[in-house]
Write a structure and sequence with these properties.
Distance between the termini: 56 Å
Bound molecules: zinc ion
Number of helices: 7
Strand content: 15-25%
Order of helices and strands: EEHHHEEHEHEEHHE
Shape: globular
Structural class: alpha+beta
Length: about 240
């Protein structure tokens, strides 16, 4: 007779005996038992394979851009920091030679990362649109609207990149071709409604893709129309 301090019930799941504590759901009990690790791992792998296959399909629809070796190196540096600290990290590079200027700043706020003192000083002394800001996104996502607006509003920044495990997203605005303008209330409503329309259209055409994949396709359409260089390339993992 087994006497348990914690109340609960034994169940057999898939031929394995597991103990489900009172109030515990089945999937948590399965995970805690450690008897399903291989199945869980296999499922995750399968899910990841499906996602990657879809990403490839998206790359067929929206042709990837070509980033330089130096851009890849600078982005990989930021991702390395993320792997060490699990935070959002930001670095700035020179837009012409793609070399890093100053340190890499970090923040555990997860949705935003500011400039370090050193970076602020570099930005202050830089010429207009001469820097590219790079930060990481923990998921596989492209730019947030806020990323784009920050780039537009900070006149020293001439480009932004987001690095994720699999992809690097890049936006290099060309203000001689078009501007992003605020309405009387201070919102970029024209841009957002164009983006929303593109998103709706793409969703009805490609319902099998994730929000991020659709956003990426919508950004491509809207920025292409504006004459701004936007796109992504698979991260160089070597
Ligand atoms: Zn971001």
């Amino acid at each position: 007779m087994v006497d348990n301090d914690i109340g609960g019930v034994w169940r057999t799941v898939g031929g394995r005996r597991i103990f489900i504590k009172n109030g515990q759901d089945l999937s948590t009990a399965m995970r805690e038992s450690g008897k399903f690790n291989e199945i869980i791992k296999a499922n995750n792998q399968k899910y990841d394979e499906i996602r990657k296959k879809k990403e490839k399909e998206v790359d067929e629809i929206v042709k990837p851009i070509k980033l330089s070796e130096k851009e890849h190196l600078a982005c990989n540096e930021v991702l390395e920091e993320f792997k060490k600290n699990n935070n959002e990290n930001l670095s700035i590079i020179d837009i012409n030679i793609f070399e890093r200027k100053g340190d890499i700043s970090t923040s555990n706020k997860h949705s935003s990362v500011g400039y370090s003192k050193e970076q602020e000083e570099i930005i202050k002394n830089a010429s207009e649109r001469s820097l590219i800001a790079i930060h990481n996104h923990p998921g596989n996502g492209t730019f947030s609207l806020q990323d784009i607006y920050t780039c537009i509003e900070d006149t020293k920044i001439g480009g932004i990149m987001v690095v994720t495990e699999d992809y690097i997203y890049s936006l290099k605005p060309d203000f001689s071709k078009s501007l992003l303008e605020r309405d009387s209330k201070g919102y970029y409503s024209n841009f957002e409604s164009k983006l929303g329309d593109a998103n709706d259209r793409l969703l009805s055409k490609y319902p099998m893709y994730s929000n991020n994949q659709l956003y990426h396709m919508a950004f491509k359409e809207v920025f292409e129309e504006m004459g701004w260089e936007y796109g992504r390339e698979e991260r160089n993992k070597d």
